Amino acid sequence: MATIAFIGLGHMGEPMAGHLVAAGHTVRGVDLNPAAAAAAAARGVEIVGSVAEALAGADACLTSLPKPEHVRAVYGGDDGIFAHAPASAVLMDTSTVDVETSRWCHDAATERGLTFVDAPISGGTAGAEAHSLTFMLGGRPDDVERAREIVAPMAGNVIACGDAGAGIAAKLANNMMLFISVMAMSEGSQLAERLGLDPRVFWEVARVSSGDSWALRTWYPVPDVVERAAANNNFEPTFSVDLARKDCGLAVQAGDVTGVHLPAARLALAQLDELIAEGYGGKDCTLVAKLASPDGTLRGFDPAADAAASAAPVPTHA
Q: For the whole model, what pTM was predicted?
């Protein structure tokens, strides 16, 4: 069994780290959010106060961080991973970043005699809980095989995508396709409702027909159709608009660099920006279905409920 440092214990990192513990590994975790750290501790993760403590004698390190700038800071800072990682450890970033940041991690690790594998994931919070994530690995073949063994307890699929940066390239293209699928699913769901179709009946039709997609099976934006969909919980985030905008923006940026035309991705990005402008960056990305509605309302979404929750008095304790 290995000793694993896990930096970033949010909605994805917490269950992932817990699965590593359940597999028999020793996991030392770091997160700035006390609630996230406490939730991970309840899963058996040993919470420590610094990256250096987490990495002491570690065989591997995984990071799960929100944005490219966080990845660069956690890896390259004075008290970061590159400063404290044992030479024998394999370093893996599961975050969704731009290709340039991922290659920077590879190059900086190589300069220091360290091993880095880009290891982005797909499957969302449901996949993280169910240890059925898809890991897309990029790096030298021997390093990728080492990473494969570490991530296995969290994964349903582990795919070697190629050399340095290939994993994150696959992730950006995949997530771009996801957001376009969300847009299609959202428009189809609203048209079906306005045409008088029973939502579950239409979902059953689409699920076994040409309208099928992972988004439709997992995130359908109408209440009481898919059990874990955000539509059943006032669109509280399983994958927030803010994070979706970040990922979609990175894909569009990659299109600009490569010269690939991405009109559908740009439309998806514009819709996410519209939700953010309306103040819904913290809601689930499937709230884009609201933009297909003729009057801007959406069954399952009550903006007043959020306002009431924000206005509620904060309880105090003696």
A: 0.90
